[in-house]
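Think of the structure tokens as a kind of shorthand, similar to the way a musician reads notation: each symbol stands for something richer, in this case the local conformation of the backbone. In the example below we present two proteins back to back. Begin with the first one, reading the sequence and then the tokens, and try to describe in your own words what changes along the chain.
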Amino acid sequence: MGSVSIRRVRRTDMPCIYEIEQLSFKQPYSSAYINSLAHVALKTFLVAEKDGKIAGYVVAIVQGLGLGHIISIAVHPEYRRQGIGVALILRLIEILKEQGASVIRLEVRKSNIVAQKTYAKLGFRILHAIKKYYENGEDCVVMLKAIY
């Protein structure tokens, strides 16, 4: 197994990212939205490469008052449980600090206990839930992490 490298997204990565999005979420973002994120989040849209293939991605934006917001993170099913998601988040935290963020926010499905546990290990704490956040009516859990 090769090593994982993390870098900024490239236009040529978009088909792979969209495929990962489709494989990872019940209600995936559209390719148009993902492409728009690549233009908005120039420094905070990262991909993980392993063995020459895109294994996962994370995208965030910095909002006013030092809030970094993770919009989406996903790892291709073939590469899950190898620490790629954690590596992406750790690198993203460094970049968000450089961009002036002092807090990071994310939303996760209430039913996605595995992801919630992973985020908790990385220092995210549950702030509250939002009822019927997702299109199918499922609640989300909002999690925050202070970064210094």
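Once you have a description of the first chain, move to the second and do the same.
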Amino acid sequence: MLLSSKKHSDPIIIEEVFTSNHSASDTFSQQLLNDINYCKVKNQKSCHLIVFVHGFQATSVDLAKFRNFVWKLLPLVSCLISKSNEADTHASIEQLGLNLATEVKLHLHRYFENRTDKLKKISFIGHSLGGIITREALKHLGKYADVMHGFVSLGSPHLGYMYNSSGLVDAGMWMLQKWKNSKSLQQLSMTDSKDYRDSFLYRLS
């Protein structure tokens, strides 16, 4: 949940976590803390990589504050804020996902090549369209399946906007699709195919 106020320039973030046994040990946050303790014991400062993926028409700067929050709580994790799709989020989600996967591979090659003993887990945090882009990117990261750990999406339209009830949103999306020829918005609205079963989102699921 994201709350804002005219009196404050920074958002207020509230996290709700529900578990079946009311135990915090199963939560993603607790697992991250366990990873940090492991790093301290083994003296491995980069055993968990967290990748942040921004949304539609956004930039890496938009997620910098989230990254800073993570570093404040978990100073020993390694963070990557994706920049590969900053220039054009109107491209197809297939292309955006491939861009992200390539960026992650290059990052791992640069910082973890010949140091696989220090790469224990990879997690993704995607905002809005970033959550969908992450799901597409995972198709190209099978090499790292053994260290894939967590996936968090914040406000991601996993079901698309096919049945959106807001006329204002419909008008805005139509305008962007016409003005920018936005392939990603066309895919989110599931209008990229005459049969929805052939649409990108349906196939991605």
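Compare your description with these statements about the second chain. The CA atoms of residues 75 and 153 lie 22 Å apart.
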